[in-house]
Every structure is written in C-alpha cells, then in structure tokens.
Automatic annotation (TrEMBL):
This is Queuine tRNA-ribosyltransferase. The keyword Transferase applies. It comes from Parafilimonas terrae. Substrate binds at residues 94-98, 148, 196, 223. It holds the Pfam family TGT. Pathway: tRNA modification; tRNA-queuosine biosynthesis. The lineage of its organism: Bacteria, Pseudomonadati, Bacteroidota, Chitinophagia, Chitinophagales. One of its GO terms (biological process) is tRNA queuosine(34) biosynthetic process. Gene3D superfamilies: Queuine tRNA-ribosyltransferase-like (3.20.20.105). The chain crosses the membrane at residues 327-350. The active site is at 94 (proton acceptor), 273 (nucleophile). Keywords: Glycosyltransferase, Membrane, Queuosine biosynthesis, Transferase, Transmembrane, Transmembrane helix, tRNA processing. Catalyzes the base-exchange of a guanine (G) residue with the queuine precursor 7-aminomethyl-7-deazaguanine (PreQ1) at position 34 (anticodon wobble position) in tRNAs with GU(N) anticodons (tRNA-Asp, -Asn, -His and -Tyr). Catalysis occurs through a double-displacement mechanism. The nucleophile active site attacks the C1' of nucleotide 34 to detach the guanine base from the RNA, forming a covalent enzyme-RNA intermediate. The proton acceptor active site deprotonates the incoming PreQ1, allowing a nucleophilic attack on the C1' of the ribose to form the product.
Length: 378
C-alpha cells in the first residue's frame, strides 16, 4: 500500500499539527520521533525493548552502513531489513548521502554519482541515484530517501546553488528509476525528496517548490543541525514548512535536542530523528522530565530516588540515580542500556505529550513552559 497522511488537528497559536501516517507496516501518530538504528540496531537497545518499553512506532536505518555491512545480498535473503532484525513496524532509510560526505575516506562528486572509499576497509564504491534506489529496495524500508548532496554548513552561495541543482537532477533520476522497477517484498515503498539549499532563503524556496512539484507522499528537510546557530535552523525550518505542501508529512532530518524538537513542531514539522538520545545516553547525559542530568557527577552517588519519576515507563522508576551512576563509574554495560532507554522513552513521551497538547488546543503555552523546564541542568 502507498503511504497516506491525514491531518487530525492544528494548533491555533502556531503551525503545530497532529496527524496520522499509514504505511504497509502500520500507522504512525505524528508528531513522531524515530529512534536511529543505523546498521540495523538501535545502539544498546533490543528490539523487544523498543516495542515494549520505548513504544517506538517507526525506526530509521541507513543505506550507506547497511550496504557496507551486512550487504544487500544478505538483506535480500532475509526478506529485507524487517525480517533480518525482526521488526514488523515501519522503517525509514536515509539514502546514505550524508554519510558519503561525512564518513567516506575520500570522495569524488560527478554527474553520475559519488565515488567514495569505505571508512571500514578503504574499498571503492559508486553511489548513483539509481544504485541508491536499488539498495533501498533491497533493504525494504517503508519510507526511502532520495539521494542528495549535503553541502557543508558554511558553503558559499555558488557552491550551494550548484549542489542544489545536482540534487534536483538526482531526484528526477531517483523517481524515474523507482517508477521503472517493482517492489521486491510485495508492498509499496514511498520516496521522500530532500530539500537542500544551505542557509540561503532563495535556494531553500526554490528547492521546496521543486520538491513540492513532484507530489511525493512526504518531504524531508535536510542540511540543518550541521553546526549552524539554533536561530538559523528555526528560520530555515519555518521557511521550508511555509513552502512545502500542508497535506504531506514533513520530516526534519537529524534534529535534535528536546527543545529543538518542540520548537520545530511549532513550526509545522511532523517527523524527527537524531542519534542524540542514545549517543548522549551512552556518555552519561540523561534527558528527563525535570531537565538534563550528567549521571557521572558525584552528587548522584547517594541519590536513591528513581531516574525519572515523571516518565510513565518501568525502567525510569525501577532504577535509582545512585545505581545508574555506579554502573557508569564501574564501566558496566548495563548502564549504557539503561541510559539509552531512559532517553529514548523520554523522546517518545515528549512527542506524544506534544500531540496531546495540540489536540487539546494548549500546545503553545505547554511548549513554552516545557522548554524552560527541559533546559535546566540538574
């Protein structure tokens, strides 16, 4: 089945909206946060925990990493990533464009595609729009991303413009190739184009209009959260939401902190992903309903209160701050899992609460109060 999106409520005091995305592997209530499972695994967390504790509705995989390991042949034999990792809810795959430009040892951009060397073993590969579509067909994600160039955050105007023109030509090739091939696993995959254009308003507007003309089932905003000031990120996000279709889901790629997510929901974004919950968790930074905790600090050594009494999930109540700090100090792997689960549960709770507030008509006042609370350093 093709992806469908229905708008259920919009906020009177902002652009925030609540909706529902329907895919072949289930429904997704928006706004939504997608845990990042780059190589077929959300780091330090099992699939059972994602189902039962985190209550994830959709997760993200990555074309670049899955292409290199385990490889497309193995994924195809497993029936796609769903079968390989035993996950029967929706999956979105990033095209690998960002990883090609950020991880590869060397790269050469041509009209045909990008020649690069693997960051794992130095082997040489070519990613063309057509090949990236074929890789994602074998992965079998419900939502797949067009191949794009993600230019550096401080690119000059001419570079950003030439890059955008290339991304648009690659988008046409992605669409044409996908339309000329059949799904491998009996269900339709849904291509999201990616808006680029760096920090230049005219390029972003041009990109949004070009992307909108393709009438894709959803659209993504890329090239943000790459080092630009928060104010610029919000400014460009607002501009893109203004020019992207209101009847299609909007996905802001790679963003961000809890307060970033709340602000961007208020601007009209529906979907988010970021490695921050698990990466920061593995380094001892916890996001809680009361603020940010560095669990390694000595102040928590004899704090026997639950990690986060404000979260309605078992793990945040079961373990104490003192015990979790001990696990980190002792180098016990369980600490990484508990911290990752705390943060993922928090992110999914946050977008769920945002949805409730949008439906109630109280989102903006709630968002303002919540943002101030979440930024506190405990």
């Amino acid at each position: 089945m093709a992806l469908s999106f229905s708008l259920e409520h919009t906020d009177a005091d902002s652009k925030a909206r609540a909706g529902k995305i329907t895919t072949a592997h289930g429904e997704i209530s928006t706004p939504i946060f997608m845990p990042v499972g780059t190589a077929g695994s959300v780091k330090a967390v099992t699939q059972q925990q994602l189902y039962q504790e985190v209550k994830a509705q959709i997760i993200l995989g990555n074309t670049y990493h899955l292409y290199l390991r385990p490889g497309i042949e193995i994924l195809n034999k497993a029936g796609g990533l769903h079968g390989f990792m035993h996950w029967d809810k929706p999956i979105l795959t990033d095209s690998g464009g960002y990883q090609v430009f950020s991880l590869a040892q060397s790269r050469k951009i041509k009209e045909e595609g990008v020649l690069f060397q693997s960051h794992i073993d130095g082997s040489r590969h070519l990613f063309s729009p057509e090949k990236v579509m074929d890789i994602q067909r074998n992965i079998g994600a419900d939502i797949i991303m067009a191949f794009d160039e993600c230019p550096p955050g401080q690119s000059e105007y001419n570079y950003a413009k030439n890059s955008l023109m290339l991304t648009q030509r690659w988008l046409d090739r992605c669409i044409n190739h996908l339309n000329s091939t059949e799904p491998l696993y009996g269900y339709e995959q849904n291509l999201f184009p990616i808006v680029q254009g760096n920090q230049f308003h005219d390029l972003r507007k041009m990109s949004c209009e070009y992307v909108a003309s393709k009438q894709a089932p959803g659209n993504a905003i890329g090239g943000l959260s790459v080092g630009e000031p928060e104010a610029v990120m919000y400014e460009i996000t607002a501009l893109c939401c203004e020019h992207l279709p209101a009847d299609k889901p909007r996905y802001l790629m790679g963003v961000g902190t809890p307060w970033n997510i709340l602000e961007c929901i208020s601007l009209g974004v529906d979907m988010f992903d970021c490695v921050m919950p698990t990466r920061n968790g593995r380094n001892g930074m916890l996001f809680t309903t009361n603020g940010v905790i560095n669990i390694k600090n000595k102040k928590w050594a004899d704090d026997f209160t639950p990690i986060d009494e404000g979260l309605p999930n078992e793990i945040s109540h079961y373990y104490t701050k003192a015990y979790l700090r001990h696990l980190f100090v002792a180098g016990e792997l369980l600490g990484l899992t508990i911290a990752s689960l705390q943060n993922l549960c928090f992110y999914l709770w946050l977008v769920s609460e945002a949805r409730k507030e949008i439906i109630k008509g109280t989102f903006t006042s709630w968002k303002n109060a919540m943002t101030e609370q979440l930024k506190q350093r405990l």
